[in-house]
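User: Good morning. I'm curious how flavin-adenine dinucleotide would be positioned relative to this chain. Could you predict the structure with it bound?
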Amino acid sequence: MNAMIFSEKGELAAQIATMFRGKYDFDIYTTSDFPLDSYGARNVFKLTGPSIYADNISEFLARIFREKNYDFIAIGSSVMGREVSSLLSEILHLEAITEIMKLELNGEYFVTERFFYGGKTVIREESRARIFTFLPGLVDPMPVDTKSTISQLEVDIPSNVKIVNRIEKPKGSVNLEKAEIIVSAGRGIGKKEGLGIIQQLADILHGEVGGSRPVCLDYHWLSEERQVGLSGKRVKPKIYIAVGISGQVQHIAGMRGSKTVIAINKDKNAPIFNECDYGIVGDLYTVLPRLIENLKK
Ligand SMILES: Cc1cc2nc3c(=O)[nH]c(=O)nc-3n(C[C@H](O)[C@H](O)[C@H](O)COP(=O)(O)OP(=O)(O)OC[C@H]3O[C@@H](n4cnc5c(N)ncnc54)[C@H](O)[C@@H]3O)c2cc1C
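Assistant: Good morning! Here's the predicted structure, ligand included:
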């Protein structure tokens, strides 16, 4: 089987390549400068051009897909990747399955696994789909000793996208996916000021602060880039401390890969206690100061 991997995020392409190595032959297409030549691809194509957007890159990749007779397309699941997958599906008249975690071949079918019912369960499907987007962070990219050929490819199809205005996103400095320790705040903190004590704990542990959807998206107490969960970041720190988080499936979907989970919640029946290694039942405003005091010692 001969695969085309596309991601504008080099690390995501390297993750897919790491999963594919030894199973499929593949070429990587990317706009990223990430050094992708040591992940087992036959060829790495660096896409260049004055304006590359989902529309022209999809037309371009579709043309190459046909010319080179690839069997399927694997795309990193990002905002651009998801858009490209749906456009490619339309252009090539091929079925797409998005946000998958696993891909296996069974005869002429592909067997895929992805979260279902909002992350409550995993669905295993057999289909004729030929386009797949892969969730980020499924594996750590593992380089190999051999080197792939790298060449530049000019995207020679113009984009229809016209930029009418640019609005700067508030700059963040956080990379939650890489954090080794995360202290996450839930609605249970009750007020924005509650983040102070969460930050204190994170600082003492040299960790990052994350949050549940209400804290990030609904109340904007934290920036969206700190949201952990199904519609936020998928994290896999060594230690994940969930403070005032009930543990709904959509949140769990984002932190399931954590090595050790510690939960602090005043409700002993909160579902988070089914997901944690250590649980503290209590008011966070009583528990955290004592925890911080002890950690300082
Ligand atoms: C399509 C979809 C996508 C979603 N994506 C996400 C996502 O990416 N991430 C996400 O987090 N959610 C997501 N959600 C929302 C999710 O369903 C939950 O609503 C959300 O996770 C709940 O957040 P929470 O645990 O902070 O709040 P709550 O469920 O309100 O829980 C608050 C918890 O705090 C405890 N508490 C209250 N006061 C204290 C105190 N003083 N001390 C200690 N504990 C206290 C309570 O006992 C309670 O358990 C999504 C929902 C949908 C439908």
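The chain has a mean pLDDT of 94. Residues 2-154 form a domain with the Rossmann fold fold (CATH 3.40.50.620).
Let me know if you'd like a different ligand tried.
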